[in-house]
Amino acid sequence: IALVRLELPTPVDKGDHTILTILDMDRYGNLTLNIRPEEFETFADANIDLRFKDHLVKTRCQTYAQAPDNTPFVLAGSSGFMEIAVKNGSAANVLGAQVLDTLVLGRASA
């Protein structure tokens, strides 16, 4: 049996926005994105818009305790990548998202 090394999708910089990919979904419905917290920090000093289909995620939290109930938010996950989560819910269900779906990360208008 030969092992095959798979390449992870990388963020695609489009200038005013970045295309991200969902890499994983855990049993709680949290969505792991293909961007590390230090890369995400380039957007942290501004308001962010994370768009998926007709959903807009604008909330960033450091912990689940800070997050509002039943609202998608972004946080640094234990895997070393940013995640979209829903406190007391499933981000995958709320957004209708699955692995390998793409999202748009941009700076929001002030």
Describe the structure.
The protein is mostly beta strands and 110 residues long. The chain contains two helices and eight strands, in the order βββαββββαβ. Strand 4 and strand 5 form a beta hairpin. The protein is globular.
What's the total count of β strands? 8
Helicity range of the residues? under 10%
Q: Cα-atom Rg, whole angstroms?
A: 14 Å
> What is the global morphology?
globular
Top keywords for this entry?
8% helix; globular; mainly beta; 8-stranded antiparallel beta sheet; 110 residues
In short:
This protein has 110 residues and is mainly beta.
Which helices and strands appear, and what pairs or packs with what?
Blueprint: E1 12-13, E2 17-25, E3 31-33, H1 37-40, E4 48-52, E5 55-57, E6 72-76, E7 82-86, H2 91-95, E8 102-107
Antiparallel strand pairs: 1-2, 2-3, 2-8, 3-7, 4-5, 4-8, 6-7
